[in-house]
From TrEMBL:
Belongs to the N-acetylmuramoyl-L-alanine amidase 2 family. This is N-acetylmuramoyl-L-alanine amidase. Residues 2-134 form the Peptidoglycan recognition protein family domain. One of its GO terms (molecular function) is N-acetylmuramoyl-L-alanine amidase activity. CDD domains: PGRP. Residues 14-140 form the N-acetylmuramoyl-L-alanine amidase domain. InterPro entries: Amidase/PGRP_sf, Amidase_domain, Peptidoglycan-bd-like, PGBD-like_sf, PGBDSf, PGRP, PGRP_domain_met/bac. One of its GO terms (biological process) is peptidoglycan catabolic process.
Amino acid sequence: MTTIISRKAWGARAPRNRYTVTWAQRTEFFVHHTAGPKTQTIQQIQAFHMGPSRGWSDIGYGHLVDADGKIYEGRGWLVVGAHCPGHNRSGESVAYIGDDDPTPAAKRSIRWLYDEACRRAGKKLKMLGHGQRYATSCPGPKLQAWVNAGMPVEAAEKPAKPAPKPQPTETEAIVKKLPTLKQGDHGWHVKTMHYLLAARDYAVPAEVDDTTFTEQHTNGVKGIQAAAGLKETGVVDGPTWAALLRVA
Ligand SMILES: [Zn+2]
């Protein structure tokens, strides 16, 4: 959830004066940068704007966003700003705290402020970089190109992938391929069963043909089934194959 760090929360100094407009008067949304280091604090920016070199009544911008995407209330919504001559009444404003190196998190927050301003205004505000209405390099080529592109943002988190289909275990996969066997059957699968019985201590005497399902095999299978808690049918079905294959 996106939140705005209020003036009270960051300890803003009171403005020397304050004028407001209505959303009907707001038609634009300006993007700026502070052109300073990313580490500059909101308090330092306010002190600079209210100090002797600027002498403004308050911090210049409506809102500010840092590299982590944290949003600070500057003058706030609908307060006449000091960010772009001739547009301080018509334009909401946000400043990125940094130079020409906007982070994805900062862009997401700037875009969130734009969407929020439009929502409050009940109309689309014109997206503008400071330099589009005043002779300045602000907000820098990267942010300006991003504004020109319509402030696209990627979601902070990729939407969750659908849960992967459960993969059958190796044993289940093998069992699926094995036919049901019963006394009298012949073939390669009978041989598999023959040696699995031996491995599980239900060895059928060596002289017995290992490719034919004999009565001895039936007895061995019933033994495996009894040990596994299965019905003693003597028929090697899926669960019986699983019991034969289980390494325990
Ligand atoms: Zn600017």
